[in-house]
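Good day; I would like, with your permission, to put a structural problem before you. I would ask you to consider whether the tokens describe a fold that such a sequence might reasonably adopt. The full record is reproduced below for your convenience:
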Amino acid sequence: MEEKQTVKFKKDEFAIRESIKKMLGKGKVSKVKIEYTPVGEKVIISTNKPGLIIGRGGERLNEIAEYLKKNFKFENLHLEIDEIREPEFDSQIIADDIALGLEKFGPLKFKVIAYRTLEKVMKAGALGCEIRLSGKLPGARAKTWRFAQGFLKKTGDTAKVVDRAQARAETKPGTVGIKVSILSPHAILKDKIYINEGLINQLKENLNNFEEKSNKKPKKTLKGKVNKK
């Protein structure tokens, strides 16, 4: 029973996220979470543009609430907006931005779009970023292009802190698949070694003081004994 409930929960979460994305458009919603409480259901929408989702006087938010109540049979629904303060570190926002750029300027500009996005993410302070584009770029045959910079964990427990997302761009030659992986500077790495600069400077200062004191001490002279015959 628990497995069936988990599968149903994930299916509902995916369907709600896709429905909200279709209503609001690509590039406005990053994540959608559902929390079931004794009082009712709470849907948390993570976005970098809260004003567009709320609308004037909360009209857009009321439309979303009515749509979810009608299609997903929520009894006591509560919508909550979670604003993303640093969208440069959100992989879904970045992937959607790349998809919008490819749809607007065409797949021939894919290198310019990818390198500009990579530069923007790294300038914001990310530890690492990887962008993969798959599709008919730029010829008739499908290829996979990889753009990466910085440090990125691929395996192990520390790879879980990497934020990953996917998106699709519908262009004239065909569909382009987009995969983005970002390692945020706020990520906690278990195998990272932190160096205490203050302690190192203190040790260097103590060593210099010790060397100065040892140089100031007078040198002892050894007096030899003369044997009388």
User: Anything to note?
Assistant: Helices lie at 2-24, 50-54, 59-72, 91-105, 110-123, 197-216.
